[in-house]
Amino acid sequence: MDWPNHHDAWREWRRALSGARMHHGWILAGKSGLGKREFAHAAARELVAEDGINQPAGNHPDILHLTHLPKDEKEEKKRDDGKPYQVKRNISVGQIRDMQRRLNTRPTLGARRAIIIDPADDMEPSASNALLKSLEEPPQGTFFMLITHRPSRLLPTIRSRCRLLRFPTLSEGDLSRLLDQHAGSASAQARDAAIRAAEGSLGAALRFVEQDMGPIAALIMRLLTEGDANFQVRGELGKAIGPRADRSRVQAILELAQALVAGEARQDGTAARRGRLIEVHSELVTLAAQAPTYNFDNSLLAMEIGTLLSSASAASDHANG
């Protein structure tokens, strides 16, 4: 896939790759859904390739990808069977130490190996501290690529030892063209809602389209603009979410609500309402962080989301004024 927001990153990466001394640590920073993982694997292949050495088309022995492991043995079996599976919340210190043990041996095919940590901002604290030792004294021929959606969550000592590649968000025009390629059968309502809410992230836009977020986006905007004095819209939101919505759908709805609240805050000129919208956005972020670990009843969750949104409505401001 040709990502229009990768051109500057490729230019900087290839300039470094062709230089006399390639830096051993790189941070790939930007919102989720901007193709950073795809860039990391393509860049890693360029890094480890050597003239005269055949490179495998599939998994490469000198490219190690550390990411979230399955949540438990049951989820591990699902992964092995090629089914969707739930993952652990963090990248553990055990994963980092296993990787470090592999660094005691030489690369398999050539003189270089690449370690991709994805996303690095999900490393538990002990894992970050363990990784820091490898960044301070990197083994010969080993290069680290840390994919991060929130670089501020990385240790300052890790950030200081890596070069930064930033990945900008996509324009609405780019998002529209990419959705044509990857979600051409989606309705116009779903596509428009996805583009408006995705805030420049193709990954978010595709999730919104896949989950058919158009009707939910319309309900969220009704709550934000009209309020919900008789609880009717909150009831409609509960029905639209569905009683058996899985975790991915719930997370997509919370992401959509955050994005639409943020967009409303940027456009609203009233200081008091803008402040309330910012508060609601913060509360939605907290709710999204809690949702994976708590057994929320979906009807209660819809009520909580709807109450937060309606509390920031223009109608609520007029009623309280």
TrEMBL record:
This is DNA polymerase III subunit. InterPro entries: DNA_Rep/Repair_Clamp_Loader, P-loop_NTPase. PANTHER family: DNA POLYMERASE III SUBUNIT DELTA, REPLICATION FACTOR C / DNA POLYMERASE III GAMMA-TAU SUBUNIT. It holds the Pfam family DNA_pol3_delta2. GO terms for cellular component: DNA polymerase III complex. It comes from the Bacteria. GO terms for biological process: DNA-templated DNA replication.
